[in-house]
Specification:
The structure holds 2 protein chains of 2 kinds. By secondary structure, chain A is of the alpha/beta class. Chain A folds into 2 domains: about 190 residues, Thiamin diphosphate (ThDP)-binding fold, Pyr/PP domains (Rossmann fold, 3-Layer(aba) Sandwich); about 130 residues, 3-Layer(aba) Sandwich (Rossmann fold). Helix content of chain A is about 35%, strand content about 15%. In chain A, the strands form 3 sheets. Chain A has a 7-stranded mixed sheet, with helices on both faces. Chain A has a 5-stranded mixed sheet with strand order 9-11-10-13-14, sandwiched between helices. Chain A has a two-stranded antiparallel sheet with strand order 1-8. In chain A, strand 13, helix 9 and strand 14 form a beta-alpha-beta unit. Chain A is globular and about 60 Å long. The longest helix of chain B has 18 residues. Classes of the chains: A alpha/beta, B alpha+beta. At the A-B interface, helix 8 of A face helix 2 and helix 4 of B.
């Protein structure tokens, strides 16, 4: 495949993502993802991308801006607006030995390719013994006034489908390290970025091209002895803000960032609950049969004797994400809601 | 000697130990209160039938046993040493033979006895022998608290909970055994530091206060025995009677004026407050004799008519509702009724009624008026066939002849069992009560 000239360090259209860091060397979550894609495409010629308007347009959120200039249209492939076809193409390419990374404009639209994802892609290795190293990535989640077709959290669907890994990072470094790991993984990975985080959160991100993080390992983002909040994605940031506020009241909250919901890092969850004896599972997918249901069940089954209070789920109600800002705020767990839940559970 | 569950009232077949007032090893004097029991009828203290040392408690608090069951052993003076064996009867011992596998910690709340048939432990493991009420949730023990209590041999009766409602938290237990909270996580299996050790084998489990888990925003409160008895009785009445209801309005202007005139002198002379209830009881007693079917009970296919009036008076108190009975109310004048009502109500609220005093009513009066209701539909206090409700006396504009006047008026209503009483009888009965209250001169009856 053809490659074009690299304009290393130059900002703007056509430039390598690393050149878009701040002067302090910080990368936003979005840039960190772009860096991961860029580095893996540089590293491995079998890696290519496909998706709607990812080429000249640079993607709905401009994650792949400039990629087509560097890697060419054969590796940055615009597709028809047919998600089922995107997944089918990716699986077919993987069968032939390539390592496709498919972008979805919104994770909501993954459901248009649902059968291909959960029936064909997820089961392919089980059926044939042939690996299917496909990454499906797209922005999930709410909080950006994008209404019910552009705010969904599909992770429970895919976490429930055997054969898929589901990654849900909250920080730029995690996003970069885990996306690189996903691309190198021989299993299909649903990589759910969070659009609320894209440009809000930035940090200094490792530049080592071989920096990867293991999929399936949670991370303690804030240590505390009194109560554990298990979260992922945008909710990690809400939890951290609540934990900071609660520290002034003497409540020491531990925030455990799952980073991936499948595999679920049971060891980290159980270790934290063994320490704190109280747990809130905070998540953005619907409360009913959401990720928190599984986490709460794991704690109840395997940490029963560590518990000093019931496991609490804090999650949106079972309704579509509302468009009205007021309603969306009511729908999503807010920092104040988290603080209330922590106080209540602390006093239980 | 053996202490047995007494027969408290002819229809009582079982009783629940609410609280032991003495611990094993305590000295007990003759007639000194020994334990508290709850029956279908009443909660009461039971005095000791012997003097000596309480050597063994055989039935723990919270247990319900049949009349005649041996509850405890008292070694009378001179035989204590022979009766005592090591590890069984030493004061303060937490070993309680007879409790067996159901060995449980003390039930801290004497006001809220735990469910029937759940042995709730005794006071024997607390130094004073009297359980301390540590809050409504002090018996909710998390899995971790149970585990830590077992690991460290902690008697939970000695731990004060700082959680909501007195719940014992992880930190409470760790503080009790002298360890910092964070150390627990670091070394959960470390050898415990015992400050108040007890053999692990005798460490109690726990009694949940209620048999269901509370949902978010809910609190689960186990029904007291009294509450359960009320619930059973009320529901049973509604299920078994053909309840109908009639109300009359009564002009009590002259009664109001009479009471206003006489109450101070009445209190000075008899030592009890003069209320309207004695007048209503008197007027009702007369009507019951006039219409015996209202003063009756249904027994299979027979109607049993009472030729006497035992008047039940509904009294609310902290534990719920109780109906003490004025025996022979038809033999009393207003002064006697006032005294009887004051006495029974006071002792009901002090939990001092005797079982026989809450049995045998032939008719019942309830008196929600002081709380402001103007009409009530009471549930019949079976096996009575009727119950009268006396609601609030209010000043109202009424038409008298062709004039509008302001008079003190009251609604008196009756729920009645249509299986025995028909509408005409019920109405004539109430009309008689109304007529008595409006026309009798109660002044001479008061003697003031």
């Amino acid at each position: 495949m053809a490659t074009r000239t690299l304009h290393a360090g130059a900002a703007g259209h056509g430039a390598e993502p690393r050149g878009k860091r701040t002067d302090a060397g910080e990368a936003t979550y979005l840039i960190a993802i772009a860096e991961a894609l860029w580095e893996e495409m540089e590293r491995d010629a079998r890696v290519f991308m496909l998706g709607e308007d990812i080429g000249n347009y640079g993607g709905a959120f401009k994650v792949t801006e400039g990629f087509i200039d560097h890697f060419g249209p054969e590796r940055v492939m615009d597709t028809p607006i047919v998600e089922e076809t995107i997944v089918g193409m990716a699986l077919g390419a993987a069968m032939e030995g390539l390592r496709p990374v498919a972008e979805f404009q919104y994770a909501d639209f993954m459901s248009s390719g649902f059968d291909e994802i959960t029936t064909a892609l997820a089961r392919y290795h089980y059926r044939s013994g042939v690996p299917a190293p496909v990454v499906l990535r797209g922005p999930s989640g709410g909080g950006v006034r994008a209404s019910s077709f552009h705010s969904f959290n599909p992770e429970p669907w895919f976490a429930h489908s055997p054969g898929l890994k589901v990654v849900t990072p909250a920080f730029p470094t995690d996003a970069k390290g885990l996306l690189k790991a996903a691309i190198r993984d021989d299993n299909p990975v649903v990589f759910l970025e969070h659009k609320w985080i894209y440009r809000r959160i930035k940090e200094v991100v490792p530049e080592d091209p071989d920096f990867v993080l293991p999929i399936g390992k949670a991370d303690v983002k804030r240590a505390g002895d009194d109560i554990t909040i298990v979260a992922y994605g945008m909710m990690v940031h809400q939890a951290l803000e609540a934990a900071e506020n609660l520290a002034t009241e003497g409540i020491r909250v531990e925030v455990l960032d799952l980073r991936s919901v499948q595999p679920l890092d049971k060891e980290a969850i159980l270790a934290s609950v063994a320490k704190t004896s109280r747990a809130i599972v905070l998540y953005e997918s619907h409360r009913f049969l959401g990720i928190g249901a599984e986490v709460a069940a794991v704690i109840a089954e395997e940490a029963f004797e560590s518990l000093d209070a019931p496991v609490v789920r804090l999650a949106p109600p079972n309704v579509p994400v509302p468009f009205s800002p007021t309603l969306e705020d009511a729908y999503l767990p807010q920092v104040a809601d988290i603080e209330d839940a922590v106080r209540k559970l602390s006093a239980w | 000697m053996h202490v047995k569950m007494p027969q408290l009232g002819e229809t009582v077949i079982e009783g629940t130990i609410l609280k032991w007032l003495k611990a094993e090893g305590d000295q007990v004097a003759l007639d000194e209160p020994l334990f508290e029991i709850s029956t279908d009828k009443v909660d009461t203290e039971v005095p000791s039938s012997a003097a000596g040392v309480l050597t063994k408690i055989l039935v723990p608090e919270g247990s319900t046993v049949a009349v005649g069951t041996e509850l405890a052993e008292i070694a009378e003076a001179g035989v204590v040493a022979a009766a005592a064996t090591p590890g069984e009867s030493s004061p303060g011992s937490s070993v309680r033979p007879g409790a067996g596998a159901g060995d449980e910690p003390p039930a801290p709340s004497s006001a809220a006895p735990v469910a029937i048939s759940v042995p709730a432990g005794t006071a024997a493991s607390t130094p004073t022998g009297v359980p301390v009420d540590r809050g409504s949730r002090s018996q909710i023990l998390s899995p971790l608290v149970r585990k830590l209590a077992a690991e460290h041999g902690v008697d939970l009766a000695n731990v004060v909970g700082t959680g909501t409602g007195g719940r014992i938290t992880k930190n409470d237990i760790l503080a009790f055994v002298g360890r910092a909270p964070t150390a627990a996580a670091a070394a959960p299996s470390a050898a415990p530091v015992l400050t108040a050790p007890a053999p692990a084998a005798t460490t109690p489990g726990a009694v949940p206060a209620a048999s269901i888990a509370a949902g978010v925003g809910e609190e689960v409160v186990a029904m007291s025995h009294i509450r359960q008895a009320i619930a059973k009785h009320m529901y049973g009445s509604v299920q078994s009677t053909a309840r109908a209801w009639t109300m009359v309005e009564v002009n009590v202007e002259q009664l109001v004026q009479l009471r206003a005139r006489a109450k101070d002198a009445f209190l000075a002379k008899y030592g009890v407050n003069l209320t309207y209830l004695p007048f209503v009881v008197r007027a009702t007693v007369d009507a019951l004799h006039e219409f015996p079917n209202v003063n009756a009970r249904l027994d299979g296919e027979n109607i049993v008519l009472h030729r006497y009036v035992n008047m039940g008076i509904a009294v609310s108190y902290d534990a719920g509702l109780i109906v003490p009975v004025i025996k022979g109310a038809d033999g009393m004048n207003s002064v006697g009724l006032a005294r009887a009502i004051a006495d029974l109500a006071a002792r009901a609220r002090a939990h001092q009624l005797k079982p026989d005093e809450v049995q045998g009513a032939t008719f019942t009066i309830t008196n929600p008026g002081p709380y402001g209701s103007i009409a009530s539909v009471p549930i019949i206090n079976t096996p009575n066939t009727g119950i009268i409700s006396l609601d609030a006396i209010t000043r109202r504009a009424v038409v008298i002849g062709d004039a509008i006047a302001i008079r003190s008026m009251v609604n008196i209503s009756m729920s009645w069992d249509h299986r025995v009483i028909d509408g005409e009888l019920a109405t004539r009965f109430l009309a008689r009560v109304k007529e008595n209250l409006e026309t009798w001169d109660f002044g001479g009856d008061l003697g003031v």
